[in-house]
Each structure stands twice: as C-alpha cells, then as structure tokens.
Design brief:
Blueprint lengths: L11 E9 L26 H5 L12 H4 L8 E5 L2 E8 L2 E6 L13 E5 L3 E5 L6 E3 L17 E2 L1 E3 L4 E6 L24
Antiparallel strand pairs: 1-10, 2-3, 3-4, 4-8, 5-6, 6-7, 9-10
Organism: Littorina saxatilis
GO molecular function, one term: 2 iron, 2 sulfur cluster binding
Pfam families: Rieske_4 (PF22543)
Length: about 190
C-alpha cells in the first residue's frame, strides 16, 4: 500500500503485483468500426454464414483476409483486495473497473472498448451489449438505468507500476472467524 497526493489521497492504494503498464494492451492501437462489435453477432465476418459454405475438410471456409480486424484483445483481469478488476489502457491511461456488468454480471474484462459519441470511452459487455462508461461506471446507451459498475482510481508510478485505490481494505483480511484457529506456539525462554 502507498499514498499519493491529489484528490484521491484518502484512498488506500494497493500495488497490482506482477503487472506493469507495458503489459496491458493499449486499445488505441486497435481501431474498430463505429457501431460494429467485432467478435459479436454483428461482427464483420459472419462465421455462421461462412460455415454453411464448408470446404471438403468440414472447416468453415474463411479466408485470412476476412479475419483481419478480428481482435482477441481483452482487458487485463487482476485480483486485488478481494476484488476481480478489469484493467484497460487507452492512449496510455489505465482504467480499473469491477469485472462484473451491473446488468447481469457479465465479465467486463472480455468486452470491447469503444467511444460513445458525446459520452466518452466505454466497455461493451460481451453478454448483452450494455455499455459502461470507464470514467464514471454509469450505463452508457441504456439511459435512465440506475445500475452502475464500480470503478477504481488508478495511479501509475514512474517505473510503470500500477496502483488501484480503494476506500478500505477488504474485511476478509480481518475476519478471523472464517479461518481455522491456529495454535499459538509458546516462546522459548533460554
């Protein structure tokens, strides 16, 4: 844990172990057509249609040119402070959001990053296509919804280490009733 100066100085910042900023895919390098969700039923290559025109070896007849633009990138999933958190990087900035869509619990770490006109950057849930704004956690395209995802402030050190801010340390670390008792070994006196 560490502290940082700034508006989130009352947060408890915990270091994400084993992950640096350079390890996280930067979505700026993956342009995607507006309104098209690569890897979803609206994707550019309709593999179901292609599967109907199978070759002799019973594999879908999809050329490599048609697969260009299909992405396998996703958020970086970490477990810290008893939370599963999806990390996304866009234009060098790291965003942290609980890996659970407020609609039905879908894995946001598996979603696409898009820019909603007039709204900002969002992650699109892979289950039901809900958009969640990365800055606020609010639902993007489904206006009027009260659900929101939990977002966390992120700080990055000069060395590229990532720190996520929390309001408190998880109670799990202090609830000794959940763990088996430990026999205390008496100190030796010489």
């Amino acid at each position: 844990m560490t502290s940082f100066n700034g508006p989130d100085e009352k947060k408890i910042y915990m270091k994400v172990l084993g992950v640096k900023v350079s390890d996280i895919h930067d979505w700026t390098r993956s342009p995607k057509p507006c309104g098209r969700h690569i890897g979803t039923p609206d994707s550019e290559v309709d593999l179901d249609k292609k599967a109907s025109t199978k070759s002799n070896d019973s594999k879908p007849n999809v050329s490599s040119e048609e697969l260009i633009g299909q992405r396998t990138e996703k958020g970086y999933l970490v477990s810290i402070n008893d939370e599963l958190i999806a990390l996304f990087k866009v234009q060098g900035k790291v965003y942290a959001i609980r890996d659970s869509c407020p609609h039905a619990g879908g894995p946001l770490s598996m979603g696409d990053i898009e820019e909603l006109p007039g709204e900002g950057l969002c992650v699109r849930c892979p289950w039901h296509q809900w958009t969640i704004l990365l800055e606020t956690g609010q639902v993007g395209e489904h206006k009027g919804r009260k659900q929101a995802a939990v977002i966390f402030p992120v700080k990055v050190s000069k060395e590229g280490e990532i720190y996520i801010g929390f309001d408190a340390v998880s109670n799990r670390f202090f609830n000794l009733d959940k763990y088996p008792s430990v026999d205390v070994v008496p100190r030796r006196t010489w």
